[in-house]
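Page 42, continued from yesterday. The earlier attempt failed because a stray header line got pasted into the input along with the sequence. Redoing it now with the clean sequence only.
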Amino acid sequence: MAGPLFDDREKIITFFQSKGILLAPEALDLMLKRSLGSLIVKLYNDEISQRGYIEVKDVLKLITEPERKDSIVKEIDYSDIKANSSVDDFRRVFVSRYEKLRKIIVTSGKLREVSSISSVKRMPKGYVKVVGMISDITETKNGHKRFRIEDTEDFIDIIIMNKNSLSKELLLNDEVIGVIGSKPEARNDRGKSEPVIFANEIIRPDIPERTIEYTGREAEYVGSISDIHVGSKTFLKDYYARMVRWIKSSSDESANMKHLILSGDVVDGIGVYPGQENDLEIINPYEQYEYLAEFVNDIPEDISVYIMPGNHDTVRLAEPQPAFNPKIREMFMKNVSFLPNPYNLVLNKKNITIYHGMALNDLIELIPGGSMDSVGSAIELMLKRRYMGSSYGGRTPIIPSSEDYHVMENVPDIFITGHIHGHYVGNYKGVRYVNSSTWQSQTEYQKMMNYSPEPGILTMFDLNSMSMIKKDFSK
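This time it went through. Structure tokens are written below.
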């Protein structure tokens, strides 16, 4: 919060004088010109305190120096995660999800006067608005959809009549929704019946319409690739080498690529599936990361590289996954940062939400007629639900903590996933998204599933416009 302290020349001078710090006039002019606000506090550090004065170069360093390394380390706290978790531990993460998504729903406009479920149950009848987490989705003998929602204190059943178009809506266990409807008067023919709500409208957290206005500034591209699978015999090193040569050439769009994201499964790992050792060129996982580092460190140093783990990497399988350990990190150059999975990365004031995407498999199976080609529908389902995980009990393992990190609290400007090994780009309400391409050829498992990956594609998003570029290095 900037506050009145930093919007006035005299007040800034007084603040630093109280700390015993002198300001060069040019430095003060630059602070005011750039409207640094509360960032000015960061100029009071040990180095400047010992020196006793602030120069223009100190202000420029504050403006240009990326802050991501501190935020990456501090944003997600895994210290409260236990090796042996109880039911209460899992309840905490569900409550966290409910409260985060409830907040998004009730601030969307239609549900500002939302009631608790317990207060609705006490009402004799009437028009109601409630928010809850879904469970027990069934169909009545008359074809009406029936499901239960619960908040932190109580539950109630919801009925959607079969003539209502809402009955065709795909609802998933554990998603949080708002319901607008009516509570009928209880029947007394056989004692008090269980209260229900007849739904007229369902409100999801959803994504508000987004736009990235064309700024007129030079393009600043974020590149996205995934599922490199270094160490596998099927790693397409020639495709990767072509990409790096193109980046180094600084030809056409490559000159404006400033960031590159590797969204998981960067190595093939070991013990991920039975007989994997037969598919590996490099058996030792740490040697796989050393080989990966050779490829990543070949990327020009002026490009910021971000690496996230996936289900093949040497971190725990259960989500959320922590960033790589220091032994792996030290193999890479200083322009490489390491992210947990999932993560919201802020670049040029744009939210880049990144998730490796293991839950996409679960969601694809829940979509009627879904297949690997339905990955776009699965991604849009995540955006509509503002949630990157799947329902509890699916194939995506989760580990409980006091906070659910799969909730999209920040509305993405760009949403990046991987895992599927296909390549799909789309736009949902102004949110550009991609299921990023793999750098591994078709595996025996994929042949058995009759699935053909789309390898060797770099996807680039401009942070200063809605431009998106697809570069295919498989040809």
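Notes: Residues 351 and 412 are 5 Å apart (CA to CA).
Reminder to self: strip header lines before submitting.
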